[in-house]
Each structure stands twice: as structure tokens, then as C-alpha cells.
Design a protein that fits this description.
Length: 131
Amino acid sequence: MDRARQMTLPTLDAAGLRIPIAPEWTLDESRASSMRLATYKVKADDDAGEAPEVVFFYFGPGQGGDAEQNFLRWSRLVTGADGKPTEPALETINVGALRITVGSFTGRYLAGSPTGPRTQRDNWALVGAVI
């Protein structure tokens, strides 16, 4: 995305970061919580299934664990055919002074609240980043 277009996009400002929000993302205010800064529904390419989400969490300074702890927690949400947690494909990048670790999981996604009922969704992906 070119810098001029990026400057005209709406942003989510959190924890000293300014995150550009794509125009095809729609804010889902029904998913708000104390840790969930924002949830956006992404316009799907087709109407065949549920719209993907982009979710931003912020736990506060020193909260929420390190990257390894977050990826371990997320691995329990995406299982293989054997029902065991998947191993993420990890990549670490540096953007200015920020270190960002990105993990990608694919398989059966266990959607829903950790304290509520879960719905299994086959052939899903979860991409998480820890800054």
C-alpha cells in the first residue's frame, strides 16, 4: 500500500501504535470486551461462509504473556485431524524499533468464548501477531 493511501485510511490508535484500517473492514461493536480493542469483519470474496475477522487485543503493559505464551494459547484453538494442537509457522520481523512475531495456524478452529460454548469450524486459519 502506498504511503499516501495509508495516510487517508481510518486508524485504530492503541498502545502508542497507529494501525491503518482497510476500507472493506466493518467494525463489529458487539464483540467488545476489556481486552479486545476492536473486532472487524472482513468482506468475504463470496457469500459462501462466515466473514473472516480481524481482532486487536491489548492487555496492558506487562500483561498477556510473551509471544511464546500467546502462540501456545492460540495453538489450542486450531487442531489437526487428530485433535491435537497445531504447530504454527512462525516468522519474526522488525519494523523500526518494534519486534513482531507472526504465527499462522491451519486446521479445525474452535470458535467462541473461552468460558462459553465452542463451535468447530473445519479448514480454517488463524494468523496471530505479537508486537
